Amino acid sequence: MSTTAPCIISADWLLPITSEPIRDGAVLVRHGAISAYGALDAVRGVAPPDVQIDHQDRAILMPGFVNAHTHLELTCYHGQLQRAPLWDWFDKLIPIRRESGAEEREAQGIHRAVEMCLAAGVTTVGDITRTGASIETLRSSPIRKVCFLELISGASQPPSAFEELVAMFKRLQTNLNKDTSLFANRLTLGISPHAPYTVRLTEIAACMDLARDRQIPLTIHLLETQEESDWLRGHGGTLQAILESRGLATGDQQPTDIDAWYTQTKALDSGGGALLAHLNYAGDADIQRVAASDASVVWCPRAHDYFGHRDHPWQRFIEAGVNVCIGTDSLASNETLSVLDELRFVAAQEPTCDPSLLLRCGTINAARGLQMSDQIGAIELCKRADLVAIDRDDAAPDEAAANVIHGSGAVSATWIDGQSVFQKR
Ligand SMILES: [Zn+2]
């Protein structure tokens, strides 16, 4: 089948996410975009007479999953680090990343990670890269991605200051603009000031201004640990000692309170739409403050469990109207890079949770968090034909969303721009 010829992909159930499920549904793909969807007969009626139909037998067809928070360059460390509090985990991770040959191992790990994502029906990732090395590997891979270039003030490797981040970003963007290779247009560059305690306050504010002015996706780790929460709220605590002993102190003074931090960094100012990673230790005031902004929150359920954090307040964020996304974090603190595995993990912990809500967190919400909801995250007209077929599980409820979440059906096929990128053998 020619990749540019229109084609129909059909299945027992179509689950568009932003509209009602359709039994015996189909999607018409033209030039990589969704040009019609609905009941198979209706879609066939608007397609060319000789259109090819790719029927996914006993399957549910839905938009590809969007993983809003990962670090693919850590894939090669899978299984090497024990479950532990974050700081102890960092202490083990940092030395192994400095061993000889690490760069090559990490690059190979990224190739493997992309294969794992596609096999799990993940069609877009929000990937954070410490030095930009993963961007080179990812730009020639078929997965759609937002590559966030990470800033740590005073880091031993660049970017270690805001000016350096801007110079690297411009250089990468210029190269990307000239890149006519097959998958170059599936890469969007973003920036990521790492966290409040590793980036100078003035540099976080500069990143927020840049992202807002240039409409660049931005993500930042925030309120990830109890120690960070205490520090941001001006409660003494142990973070300063943790940072100093690891050479991570930025020289900034401890914030007097978190409201001052929000104000000075402009993290929640309108027009920014920052993607806030984790917020494990958010209180009611933080939730209300985020809800009044256009920021999104991404939480990583299994990594959250891995690091032994307290219960995540994700449902309180949703009740407050916040856009909540799902991420996997890296394979150095997780078992798979599957968003579906994350959602099933949450459902196993909270069986009464609405399956449709969970699926939105792993598709359209995550797309919005990456500032891509105009292109991906749902089966809607003119969106890219990024799709996944999941085997229907006869032992699970018949309703499509519940069948995906409460069943154990595997991903049987994945498409990006209507092109097959994974097919279960
Ligand atoms: Zn992270």
Give an account of the 3D structure.
With 425 residues, the protein is of the alpha/beta class. It folds into two domains: 7-64 and 377-423, Roll (Urease, subunit C, domain 1); 65-369, Alpha-Beta Barrel (TIM Barrel). Helix content is 35%, strand content 23%. The protein contains 16 helices and 15 strands. It has helices at 40-46, 86-97, 102-119, 133-138, 162-178, 201-214, 226-232, 239-245, 258-265, 284-291, 301-306, 314-319, 339-349, 355-361, 364-369, 400-406; strands at residues 7-14, 22-30, 33-39, 52-63, 65-70, 122-129, 144-151, 187-193, 219-222, 275-278, 296-299, 323-326, 387-391, 411-416, 419-423. It has a seven-stranded mixed β-sheet, with helices on one face. Strands 5-6-7-8 form a four-stranded parallel β-sheet. A four-stranded parallel β-sheet has the order 9-10-11-12. A hairpin with a 2-residue loop joins strand 14 (411-416) and strand 15 (419-423). Helix 14 (355-361) crosses helix 16. The longest helix has 18 residues, at 102-119. The protein binds zinc ion. Zinc ion (ZN) is lined by residues 69, 71, 128, 221, 277, 329.
